[in-house]
Amino acid sequence: MSITSGLIARLKARSVAARATEYRQDDHAPAVPLRWRKPWYAWQLASWLLVTVSAPPFCIVALLLAVDPRSDQPLFWPGAMIVVALANALAIVLANQRHYRNAFVTRAAAARYGFGVGAVSAAALFLLLVWTTGSITTLIDPLASPQPILHPASLAIWAAGLAAAFGISSSAHASILHAWLAFEP
């Protein structure tokens, strides 16, 4: 082992130990970092499938498409389901990368990180989907102010609000479920 790799291993162990003492569960024993469940791929895949299928936007859109698959926006609604799946996959991959570099000490920390990544990525992908499919005129335009001066600002506010609601509703439960399914103390 070279001096550099030994120094890196020592600094990494020290940072994990320092973070573990920040999140004490009692006064005597420091918290230990979380571990991935074994078998790793099976738990990650099961977590992704469960959080995607149980996401409220995914369930609502799937139910509406099951009732009547004809739509005025045939690319938007299946695209919204794909956005949920992609955002959850991105949140899981980035949470795993973060856990590999700096191990999570609590499931709450893992859930907070997953929620932040998932909500932002779902909102950004939702805005991209709305913009590319041209769904602004049918989804957001009826909500905007009819006055010509206020219309662009009102349109932007409604688009941001819908994207935030979509992002939060698709990733709030997902981050908690993934933290409980993929990690064990």
Count of individual domains: 2
**Shape assignment:** elongated
Q: Strand percentage, roughly?
A: under 5%
* Arithmetic mean pLDDT: 85
Low-confidence stretches: none
Q: Which percent range fits the helix content?
A: over 70%
Largest beta-sheet characterization: 2 strands, antiparallel
- Structural class by SSE content: mainly alpha
Transmembrane segments: 45-64, 76-95, 115-136, 156-183
Keywords: Membrane, Transmembrane, Transmembrane helix
Explain how this protein is built.
The chain is an all-alpha fold and 185 residues long. The protein has two domains: 1-32; 34-184, no CATH class. Helices cover 74% and strands 2% of the residues. It is built from seven helices and two strands; from the N terminus they run αβααααααβ. It has helices at 3-22, 40-53, 56-67, 76-101, 107-133, 136-140, 151-182, and strands at 35-36, 183-184. It has a two-stranded antiparallel ribbon. Helix 2 runs antiparallel to helix 4 (76-101). The longest helix is centred in the last third of the chain and has 32 residues, at 151-182. The radius of gyration is 21 Å and the shape is elongated. The two termini are 30 Å apart.
In short:
The longest helix has 32 residues, at 151-182. The protein has helices at residues 3-22, 40-53, 56-67, 76-101, 107-133, 136-140, 151-182; strands at residues 35-36, 183-184. The chain is mostly helical and 185 residues long.
Please write out the topology.
Layout: H1 3-22, E1 35-36, H2 40-53, H3 56-67, H4 76-101, H5 107-133, H6 136-140, H7 151-182, E2 183-184
Antiparallel strand pairs: 1-2
Helix pairs in contact: 2-4, 2-7, 3-4, 4-5, 4-7, 5-7
